[in-house]
Amino acid sequence: MGIDLKTVKHISKLSRISLDDEKAKKLEADLNSIFAFIEKLNELDTKNVEPLTSIAETTLQLRKDEIKSTNIREQVLKNSPEKNKDFFVVPKVVE
Amino acid sequence: MTNITDLTLTELVNKIKKKEVSSREITNAYVNRSEKSKKLNTYITDNFENALKKASDFDNNPNYEKKLPGIPIAVKDLFCTKDVKTTAGSKILNNFIPTYESTVTENLWKEGSILLGKLNCDEFAMGSSNETSFFGNVQSPIGKNLVPGGSSGGSASALAAKLTPATIGTDTGGSIRQPASFTGTVGLKPTYGACSRYGIVAFASSLDQAGPMTGNVKDCSLLFDVMCSYDIKDSTSVNFKRKNYFKELNNSIKGKKIGIPKEYRVDGMSKEIEDLWQKGINIIKDSGAEVIDISLPNTKYALPAYYIVAPAEASSNLARYDGVKYGFRSEGKNLIEMYENTRSKGFGDEVKRRIMIGTYVLSSGYYDAYYLKAQKVRKLIKNDFDEVYKKVDAILTPSTPSSAFTIGEKSNDPVSMYLNDIFTVPINLAGLPAISIPGGHDSKGYPLGLQIIGKTFDEQNIINIAYAMENQINFKNQIKDWWI
Amino acid sequence: MDLVSKDQNKYSIKRENNEYEVVIGLEVHAQVLSESKLFSTSSTKFGAEPNTQVSLVDAAFPGMLPVINEFCIKQAVKTGIGLNAKINKKSIFDRKNYFYADLPQGYQISQYKNPIVGEGTVILDLPDGEKSIGIERLHLEQDAGKSIHDIDPQNTFVDLNRSGVALMEIVSKPDLRSLEEVNLYIKKLRSIMKYLGTCDGNMQEGSLRADVNISVRKKGDKDLGTRCEIKNVNSIKFMQMAIDYEANRQVDILEEGGKIDQETRLFDTKKNETRSMRSKEDAHDYRYFPDPDLLPLEFTDEFINELKKNIPELPDEKKKRFIEKFKLSPYEANILVSDIDTSKYFEAVIKKSDIKLSTNWITGELFALLNEKNLEISKSPISALNLSKLINLIKDGTISGKIAKSVFEIMAVGDADPQKIIEEKGLKQQSDPKELEKIVDKVINENQDKVKEFKLGKDKLFGFFVGQVMKISGGKANPQLVNDILKKKLK
Ligand SMILES: [Mg+2]
Ligand SMILES: [Zn+2]
Q: Is the CB of residue A78 less than 8 Å away from at least one CB of chain C?
């Protein structure tokens, strides 16, 4: 299964990583060699195999419904590249 | 007295407890050596001033009951450390200062240890040579222009160069064991769920585990003992009865059954690796353990499955780096442009490559063919191990298919780079513990590692086997301080 | 022009040659009533200062991990039981991946292939009988934060207080056919969840929102048309407006020989129209996969049975009981059970009072009062106890129904005891036959001409005499007695 340039551009859009044409071509080549290697899996018949969704040998721990976090707005906003006293700030979103 | 930095972790702990040396003296020694070793590029952020202050604080008010009393330790820069910059080797976190501490590092500090600094690593732990770091590649003390391995390359290099008495790394597909193997040090990848992932920058959530990296097996048991804890803040942390891994360390492996999987004898494996493995087998036999030939038939599918699962999880885990809450932002005229600029400038090529692979394998129409398929293969690989563990107590393999390579040698060929992890990846997929110990040197004098794989939560057993083998192997790292 | 049938139950859109049926399915997002969020320990309280209820987990800091809230799980299971639905003993949390300013993780933790609750039903009471609406599933997921676009002309501000709040997404089958059914369906869901205490149903505060899926098809067609999804509509009125607009838009396209594009649309409440959300379209591939930070959620039978045991009587059962035990009409029963607080109020009143009178007073006077003051019954200015007393005073003849209404008005100001009001204001009914006879005699004497007319056959004048007696008595005369006496005297 080959990956073409159009697909590369589509996944770059989905992953919100812009690529110029040169980078896209390089990536196309890389992905094709990686997937050629991945296609090895097609040798295996896995029709009746249960997928392994979690490797941790335990059950889901449940937490009590208690408020433990306090107001840490200052901490939460501290590292933001753009913020004001109350909010994170991003370029205008038009809907 | 010998050089402080030549002492092992446990020797330092003993000396400090006997008051033969102060925390300040130890910390000073490592700070001085680290200062002289900038050429290796092991540190991203040093915490020297703070560490020296804390060492003095310890000396003024010592508590010798602690397991790591006043011991300075530098850690991989993937662990979030409160008030100390944490970058994950990426430009996108270049200026990120956590207000919180990872559980594993918290465990170290609680036992009296002191943060020496944050060590270089492959960007978001994606790499096998430490060449993907935004902060530049790390030099291995083993030889000029040699890679230390990756992704915990800064950790391995700093440890081998004695810039820290011990360190911790993370291992998603071999990132502790492969650099340990390349630098002649000991590295343990614990069972998935043994060490908390809370506060560790995530790469692939179902594979990531933190583990100790040390100069010898005894140190490894001590550090693992401190790191390992059940944590309610991590839903995948397992609440099992943890041992006192340090106290229960012994070197008797008489009667143990050790499996030798034939599928690890891969095409084109060098004679040197063959010989190393045979040497390990002989040592085991000589120590009174039984060697049993076993088969792990799906081994060859592990790496392809890994290169679906890990990038898929990574593509989602790294979506949070979007220039909004923290880290680097590159402006754009609208939100989407800001995202695209931030992420294309903030991530390096390897990270972007893996995000793309991950996005692709999860995208509509491909999920079943790739992601679901990989999960099924994962099940088969796990089944392989379950099956052989009915017959054996542990498994012995080489840690890597080759010794360290030179910087730039493989950086343009992703697949040949990925093949480095061929012996380590199946263990992460199956969630098992494995330890790499130095087994000898190749003809160039570069270290080669042996890997002992255990059953789930059977760390004590593989640590003990490693301890017994270490004794027989009597490996000595031949490091001349060429960079100083 | 558009012709919408007036009979809402036969809602259809008619054009020159064709009649279209409108097919509606709802995805209701109901906020789980809980103290803390689904995967973090921050508060869910409404109305806090921006970003003050945000933990490191909610803001998706590196290395932060989700830990699930047990109570939210129980709330979802309880709701599932209330919807007569299958509880799945194993469910899985997935990541739904997309980028948005108020989605800090870059994914929403939701449930995709294996939801916590499977198929169920909700019964609607329509004027011509009951209709069963299928529930496809109920799953748990995280809410996103809030993007605020109107403070700054250049920028969008992000508040993450809601980020991570637990939502139940309740997906109906495409079984709804009219605006009225949508209205009843939402009200019924809300009623059930309020009975269960799993969601407060407050639409103003965003505790209940819906995505509306609409398609149209020619009357009689078997296959469903292509649907459009209208995102995040937050009132029943807007839902109805959006459906009406969207259904007509689709019919227009089909009438012109066009094709409907499956898409996500937005309802503009100012312009009263729906429009395409293009931003959603190019990132439509959500790349769902099981969240590796969480394990599957698994239940034992005991866990489910324990919750089942504690499920309160729900509106459908309660209605049945009201009809059977209290002999209410289905209509009355419906009104009284639709809201849990109303039913509680009703049951408190009838504990000590006549059922028939109580029903009439609650559905009549009390509802009118609450309506006028725009109050919930839980905030009623007249307590159930005092209303019950008032009803007893009517029943035993102490006051007339008419006086009772004025007493009720006084009670409405400060929930005073009706007995006291009657005593203080001297409103007690005059039931002494001798006293009343005196007044009747007075009226007859003073109106001899009218008496004559009456006796000649002008029956209608009887009311005049009653009125005069009541007037003289200040409205306090027992009307039954007045009637009896008048009849006797005028014979
Ligand atoms: Mg929806
Ligand atoms: Zn939803």
A: no
A46 vs B373: CB contact, 8 Å cut-off? yes
How many angstroms does the Cα of residue C115 sit away from the middle of ligand 2?
12
Query: Tens of pLDDT along A19-54?
Result: 999 999 999 999 999 999 999 999 999 999 999 988
Residue C1 has pLDDT above 70, yes or no: no
Identify the band that residue C269 occupies on the pLDDT scale cut at 50, 70 and 90. Answer: confident
B99/C293 CB distance under 8 A: no
Q: Which residues of B133-166 are buried (b: 16+ CB within 10 A; e: fewer)?
A: bbbebbbbbbbeebbbbbbbbbbbbbbbbbbbbb
The ipTM (two decimal places) reads 0.97
Please report the domains of chain C, with CATH numbers, ordered by start residue.
8-307 (no CATH), 313-425 (no CATH), 433-490 (1.10.10.410)
Neighbour count for residue B244 (Cβ, 10 Å):
11
Q: Which of A34, A53, A75 sits opposite B99 (nearest CB)?
A: A75
The Cα of B297 is separated from the nearest Cα of chain A by a number of Å equal to 11
Give me the residues paired with residue C170 across strands. Answer: C28, C138
Catalytic position from the list B54, B67, B76, B189: B76
DSSP assignment of C142-172 equals E---EEE-SS-SSEEEEE-TTTT-EEEEEEE
User: A49 to chain B, minimum CA–CA distance in Å?
Assistant: 6
- How many Å apart are CA B342 and CA C202, to the nearest integer? 39
Instruction: Give tens-digit pLDDT for B12-44.
Output: 999 999 999 999 999 999 999 999 999 999 999
What local confidence, expressed as pLDDT, does residue C181 receive?
95
Is position B67 annotated as part of the catalytic site? no
Segment 230-259 of chain B within 8 Å of chain C by CB:
232-236
Question: What is the CA(A9)–ligand 2 centre distance, in A?
Answer: 28
Q: What is the Cα–Cα distance from C414 to B479, expressed in whole angstroms?
A: 91
Residue of B102, B151, B181, B287 with catalytic role: B151
* Touching subunits for chain C (3+ Cβ pairs under 8 A): A, B
Residue ranges of E strands in C175-233: 208-218, 228-233
CA–CA separation, B313 and B378 (whole Å) = 14
Distance between Cα B297 and ligand 1 center (Å): 44
Is B151 a known active-site residue? yes
Neighbours of C305 (CB within 10 A): 10
| For range B264-270, the mean pLDDT | 86
CB atoms within 10 A of CB B348: 20
Distance in angstroms (rounded) separating the CA atoms of residues C178 and C183: 9
Name every residue whose Cβ is closer than 8 Å to that of residue C483 and which is 6 or more positions away in sequence: C466
Three-state SS at A18: coil
B72-76 sheet: strands from edge to edge: B43-46, B114-119, B72-76, B167-171, B209-214, B186-189, B434-441, B447-453, B394-398, B257-261, B290-294
Q: Which CATH class is domain A5-43?
A: mainly alpha
Binary contact (B319, C97; C-beta < 8 A): yes
Instruction: Inform me whether the pLDDT recorded for B1 exceeds 60.
Output: no
Distance between first and last Cα of chain C:
65
Per-residue pLDDT tens for B65-85?
Answer: 999 999 999 999 999 999 999
Active site residue B402: no
Task: Return the biggest CA–CA distance within chain A.
Answer: 58
Q: Rounded CA gap, C490 and C479, in Å?
A: 16
DSSP-assigned beta bridge partners for residue B84: B81
With contacts defined as CB-CB under 8 Å, which chain B residues touch C67?
232-235
Higher-pLDDT residue of A87 and C430 is A87
Nearest Cα neighbor of C230 from C204, C269, C202 is: C269
User: What pLDDT is stored for residue C4 in this prediction?
Assistant: 46
